Amino acid sequence: MRVVVPFAAETPKTRLESVLSPAERSQFARAMLADVLRAIVRAGHEPAVVSTAPLDLGALEMPGEVAAATSLTVDDRPLTEAVNARLPADAGDDPVAVVMADLALATPDALEELLTAGADVAIAPGRGGGTNALAVDHPDFRVDYHGLSYLDHRGIAREVGATLEAVDSFRLGTDIDEPADLVEVLVHGRESDRAPAVLREFGFELERRDGRVAAVRDGGPTAE
Ligand SMILES: Nc1nc2c(ncn2[C@@H]2O[C@H](COP(=O)(O)OP(=O)(O)OP(=O)(O)O)[C@@H](O)[C@H]2O)c(=O)[nH]1
Ligand SMILES: C[C@H](OP(=O)(O)O)C(=O)O
C-alpha cells in the first residue's frame, strides 16, 4: 500500500521548545522520521514523504534499502490539503495510508495491523483525540486534521457511507508531541531506533523518583 508520511521540515515539534533547541528539534524530528520510514519499509510498503520543504533523505542515516524504497515530494500546502490531494478519488484507485512522522514507537507489526484492517477507513487514534495513522480505501473520504480529528474522521466516514475500524495500538497511539512524551521514547524505543539514540546524545536519561519516571537532562528535571 502507498503510505504517505507528512513531514513539517522547517520548524518541527514546536511543542518541545521548552526542552529542545530549534536545531535539536529538527534533528529529533528527522530521527523519528527515519524510524517511521524504516518500520514502513520493514512492513513491506513504500513510504512517500510529503514534506513542507526540501529534505536531504541521505542525511537521515537510514539503511540503504529503506532510502531506496522511500520517495519524497515537497508540498507546502497545509497538512489537511496536502493529504487530501493524495487520497483515493475514484472507485478503482488503490488504497492509501497516512502515517505521521512523529510515531517514534511504530513497529512493522503495529503498522501491519492498521494496513491490513478490512474496513474502508482504519484509524489508529492518538491519545487526546488526534489521528496518528489511517488507511483509506474509499473514494469519498477526506481528512480534517487538528483538534479532535479522530472524532471528526469518524463523522466524515459516516457521512460518506464508509465503514470504519479503530485500531487499538499503544505503539501507533503514542505520538511524540510534548516533553512528557520523551519518557515513552526512552522507555519503549528499540535498540536500533534513531530517536532514543538522539535523545541520549542530547543528554537525556530516565530517572525514577517518587514512584514516577521522568526524562531528565544533565541532572535537571525536564520532562515528567
Ligand atoms: N506535509 C505537512 N506535514 C505536516 C504539516 N504540519 C505537521 N505535519 C506533520 O504531521 C505530523 C503531525 O504533526 P503535529 O504534531 O501536528 O505538528 P508538528 O509540526 O510535528 O509539531 P508542533 O509544532 O509541536 O505542533 C508530523 O509528521 C508533522 O511532521 C504540514 O503543514 N504539512
Ligand atoms: C495531525 C493532528 O495532530 P495534533 O494537532 O492533534 O497533534 C491530528 O492528529 O489531527
From TrEMBL:
Transmembrane segments: none annotated. SUPFAM superfamilies: Nucleotide-diphospho-sugar transferases. Pathway: Cofactor biosynthesis; coenzyme F420 biosynthesis. InterPro entries: CofC (IPR002835), Nucleotide-diphossugar_trans (IPR029044). Gene3D superfamilies: 6.10.140.50, Spore Coat Polysaccharide Biosynthesis Protein SpsA, Chain A. One of its GO terms (biological process) is F420-0 metabolic process. Coiled coil: none annotated. Keywords: GTP-binding, Nucleotide-binding, Nucleotidyltransferase, Transferase. The keyword Nucleotide-binding applies. GO terms for molecular function: GTP binding; phospholactate guanylyltransferase activity. Its EC number is 2.7.7.68. The keyword Nucleotide-binding applies. It catalyses: (2S)-2-phospholactate + GTP + H(+) = (2S)-lactyl-2-diphospho-5'-guanosine + diphosphate. Pfam families: CofC. HAMAP family: CofC. Homodimer. Guanylyltransferase that catalyzes the activation of (2S)-2-phospholactate (2-PL) as (2S)-lactyl-2-diphospho-5'-guanosine, via the condensation of 2-PL with GTP. It is involved in the biosynthesis of coenzyme F420, a hydride carrier cofactor. Belongs to the CofC family. This is 2-phospho-L-lactate guanylyltransferase. It comes from Natrinema thermotolerans. The gene is cofC.
